[in-house]
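Summary for the lay section of the report: proteins are chains of building blocks that fold into shapes. Here we show the chain for Nucleoside diphosphate kinase homolog 5 and then a coded description of the shape we predicted for it.
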Amino acid sequence: MQMLMPEPQIFVERTLALIKPDVVDKEEEIEDCILRSGFLILQKRKLQLSPEQCSNFYADQYGKVFFPNLTAYMSSGPLVAMVLARHCAVSYWKELLGPSNSIRAKRTHPHSLRAIYGTDDLRNALHGSLSISTAEREIQFMFPEVILEPVPAGQRARDYLNLYVKPTLLAGLTALCKEKPADPMTWLADWLIEHNPNKPRLQHHITEEEHQ
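The coded shape description reads as follows.
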């Protein structure tokens, strides 16, 4: 009996990751762990927030007992902000982080990032967005120049593939079969770059001297 495989779908989420001030010196090894976990780092910047900016970022925590200590901690030195992307980025990043309280994380999730790099319930080393809507707001806060365009999913993704990707890929594979190069992967990659239908093209303006 023929097994019906589900049609592949494209669905990429974005989430915000912060390497907090007390572990900025571990930036390189944390980034390596992020990349090995299947994330792409779309945007990255190092910055230092003022206490006022921290208050605005954590506005939903305003009024809680730990709020003054939180803003003081987050403004105590430079931090690294990153936009991460992958399938189900929000939930996967939260899973990689572990519980927000690093002491509890060390007991229950010893291999999580907060267990490894965190100190206590306040100094927990890393931040992750709680939801997709929160991620959009936080990314806009840390990267105000970034335009968050909606990523196509489901039928919209299939329509995009059929309209823009498959025709170019089919033409490239046909040319590859005719050419039969020694290194087909590199040849196809170069062909796709050269024949990218979305590649910007410089428009040549005819000057008055050329016209004459």
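Put simply, here is one thing we learned. Residues 136 and 180 are 46 Å apart (CA to CA).
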